[in-house]
Design brief:
The complex is a heterodimer of chains A (344) and B (328).
Chain A lengths: L5 E12 L2 E13 L4 E5 L6 H8 L7 E9 L2 E2 L5 H7 L4 E4 L3 H4 L6 H12 L5 H14 L5 H4 L9 H13 L5 E5 L7 H18 L2 E6 L2 H7 L2 E6 L2 E7 H6 L4 H8 L6 H4 L33 H4 L2 H4 L5 E2 L10 E2 L9 H4 L2
Parallel strand pairs in A: 3-8, 3-9, 6-7, 7-8
Antiparallel strand pairs in A: 1-2, 1-4, 4-5, 9-10, 10-12, 11-12
Helix pairs in contact in A: 4-5, 4-7, 5-7, 7-8
Chain B lengths: L1 H29 L3 H6 L5 H11 L5 H14 L1 E3 L6 E3 L6 E2 L4 E2 H36 L4 H15 L2 H15 L15 H35 L2 H8 L4 H28 L3 H6 L5 H10 L3 H29 L7
Helix pairs in contact in B: 1-4, 1-13, 5-6, 5-8, 5-10, 5-13, 6-8, 7-8, 8-10, 10-13, 12-13
The chains are: A alpha/beta (344), B mainly alpha (328).
């Protein structure tokens, strides 16, 4: 097996404020090969974004990460400032959710891309870097790229801006792209275009992609594998097919049932269906008890009994479909009942 | 862009004409006749009428206004024969108590006001931006708490009180600074600065408050902005990122500064009074005290002119700093 582009081992991220420490990501392990897309799914506060930021060492003040993160052979957590700068934007790049705030209002589009080029190769002249910017804008499908480089972010539409952000991220051909909710701020048709563009460029460059999303629709269209996070812990990991067709964690099943589907009627044998909501809200990370973090919201916890409250489940191997990779779920239940029952 | 500048210039001219009219109407229409002060005591009615005619204060406000505007372009002549005085264009009026045209008076006082404004502007920028930036970088730290209090104090305490305190403490108690007087820069730069430290401190203390606040909030906004995180994600160093953050702070600071500095150039009445500096503010005050309306109108208009020019400069600078304000 080739070396993975991204390897995360036992990652813990904790926030300290006012003397209280809370783990927002706990014991996370991920392996991602070139050309593959891993979707990280979860509700707000599940630690998706923090995981993405931790990989680039872009954690906010007061947060610290432990464990091991290797990106393209580089140890990120022990890297010094210079090494980090070399890795950021070159080995690993990021696409942000809000393209408006991810671009500086004071620089034109070309300056952003040229900056990304020149930060990693100072020998490139300004003019050559601008030329690269034009090329790149053309590549991401922006019409009249030669004029577009001189426009400012506020003069672009949302979809165009996101394309520009992608151009900026990919100009140095990173081995790993972290896409943090890249389509959330866009309307549905543009979403589809941006996802298709990302997939296409991924194939072309052979890069690995970590797709952070809360939207199973997006995940279904773009991911190879899926990691479901709940309260900073790995709830379930598996191939897209396994996660969609035989989820082994009640939370995954609940998320699936909460996602609108165009083929919903066929699925239930023609019955009319309602979207299910997962009752309750994610528990506060500060007063996390010893048990399963999902237990208070889980419709199946009663079936297991006390164990869910006192013992945190560890990821265990689950059945996989043909050709699928490993399938792990952190649940005390060995088998989930049919989808319909899970999401009561 | 050229059309924009031209349009702003034309607006500015009309604005000045309007301000001139209001000032003249107010002073010539409502206050006592300056001729009375000039004719001395006793003042028989015939003499007074003569003086009044000589000073041209017997005419209506509208007449005064048209004469004033005409004077700006072609100059103005008062009286006839041996008593005739001429005021060259641009004539802002003639001060009879001072036996000098207002333009010359303003020009005489300008170096003092300029020195005062220059130093105060530099000091308030350094202190204001410096403290503001430091308190944003270490939010909640000692510097932050100190400068927030400092800003609050600066905004709420009147100038004369700060002025008198500085005089009392540095001038009289510590005997460290001269408490009045002005030495011109060409005479001795060190003495020039030495005599101005007090007033500079006072003015910049009052002005710095605004810059502390604006710099702090703006820098806090900028530092947490996603586009700076994105810049780090592209591989930029902390220094490069911070340098870029300054860009966002510059916009409101420049806007504020353009207005403050021109307001300072128009004369700071209170600080000049406290430190007995004979600048434009002092000139204005003496004009009011001696019912010398030409001076009042002249200095008021000169200040208005500076403020309008400052505004114009700010408006022209803004689009250069922030492309979002640029017009198509």
């Amino acid at each position: 097996m080739p070396d993975p582009v991204l390897q995360v081992e036992d990652l813990c991220v904790s926030f300290t404020s006012g003397g209280v420490t809370a783990d927002v990501v706990r014991d996370l392990s991920v392996r991602l090969d070139g050309g593959r897309t891993l979707a990280v799914v979860g509700e707000s506060g599940s630690g998706k974004t923090i995981t993405g930021r931790a990989i680039m060492r872009l954690l906010p003040r007061g947060a610290s990460a432990r464990g091991r993160i290797v990106v393209a052979g580089r140890e990120m957590l022990s890297a010094d400032e210079r090494e980090l700068r070399r890795a950021r934007g070159s080995d690993v790049a990021m696409v942000f959710q809000d393209s408006m705030s991810a671009l500086s209002p004071y620089l034109d589009i070309g300056a952003h891309i040229a900056q990304a080029v020149r930060l990693h190769d100072p020998s490139v002249t300004r003019r050559a870097a601008r030329a690269r910017a034009v090329e790149m804008l053309d590549r991401v499908g922006i019409p009249e790229p030669a004029g577009a480089v001189r426009r400012f972010p506020h003069e672009f539409s949302g979809g165009m801006r996101q394309r520009a952000v992608i151009a900026m991220a990919l100009v140095n051909r990173p081995a790993l792209l972290i896409a943090d909710e890249p389509t959330t701020a866009l309307d549905v048709t543009v979403q589809a275009q941006i996802l298709a563009l990302l997939r296409e460029l991924q194939r072309e460059y052979g890069m690995a992609m970590l797709l952070i999303s809360h939207d199973f629709g997006v995940v279904g269209r773009a991911a190879d594998d899926v990691l479901v996070l709940y309260a900073g812990r790995q709830a379930e990991y598996g191939s897209l097919r396994d996660i969609f067709e035989q989820p082994a964690h009640p939370y995954t099943a609940g998320l699936r049932a909460a996602t609108p589907r165009l083929d919903a009627r066929l699925d239930t044998g023609g019955e009319r269906t309602r979207l299910r909501a997962i009752p309750g809200a994610p528990t506060s990370l500060r007063d996390a008890g010893p048990g399963c973090a999902f237990a208070p919201r889980c419709g199946l916890a009663d079936q297991v009994g006390e164990r869910c409250v006192v013992e945190a489940p560890l990821p265990t191997v689950r059945p996989t479909s043909e050709g699928g990779g490993p399938h792990l779920a952190a649940c005390h239940l060995d088998r989930l009942p049919a989808l319909k029952e899970v999401a009561r | 862009m050229i059309v924009y500048i031209a349009r702003r210039m034309v607006t500015a001219v009309f604005m000045l004409l309007a301000i001139a009219f209001v000032t003249i109407a107010l002073f010539f229409g409502a206050s006592k006749d300056p001729a009375r002060a000039m004719c001395g005591k006793p003042c028989p009615p015939e003499t007074r009428a003569k003086v009044s005619a000589y000073m041209q204060t017997d005419q209506s406000a509208v007449w005064q206004y048209t004469e004033f505007v005409k004077g700006l372009f072609v100059g103005r002549t008062y009286g006839e024969g041996a008593q005739q005085v001429h005021c060259d264009a641009p004539c802002f009026g003639y001060s009879f108590p001072n036996r000098s045209d207002v333009t010359t008076l303003i020009a005489e006082r300008l170096p003092v006001t300029l020195s005062l404004a220059f130093g105060a502007a530099v000091l308030c920028l350094v202190v204001g931006i410096g403290l503001g930036a430091l308190s944003a970088i270490r939010k909640g730290g000692i510097v932050d708490r100190f400068s927030t209090g400092f800003a609050m104090f600066g905004l709420s305490v009147p100038t004369f009180l700060v002025g008198l305190l500085v005089l009392q403490v540095f001038g009289f108690m510590l005997n460290a600074l001269p408490y009045s007087g002005f030495v011109s820069f060409s005479e001795s730069p060190t003495d020039w600065a030495w005599h101005l430290i007090g007033p500079w401190m006072v003015l910049s203390f009052i002005l710095a408050a605004g810059y502390i606040r604006v710099t702090r909030t703006q820098l806090l906004n900028e530092l947490s902005a996603d586009h700076l995180v994105a810049m780090t994600a592209r591989g930029a160093s902390t220094r490069q990122v911070n340098r870029h953050a300054v860009r966002g702070v510059m916009v409101p600071v420049v806007a504020m500064f353009a207005l403050d500095v021109t307001a300072l150039l128009g004369g700071s009445v209170i600080a000049e009074k406290v430190f007995s500096l004979h600048g434009l503010g002092d000139l204005l005050l003496s004009g009011v005290n001696e019912s010398d309306l030409s001076i009042v109108v002249g200095v008021t208009l000169f200040s208005a002119f500076l403020i309008i020019v400052g505004n114009l400069i700010a408006d022209l600078l803004m689009p250069l700093l922030d492309p979002r304000i640029r017009r198509a």
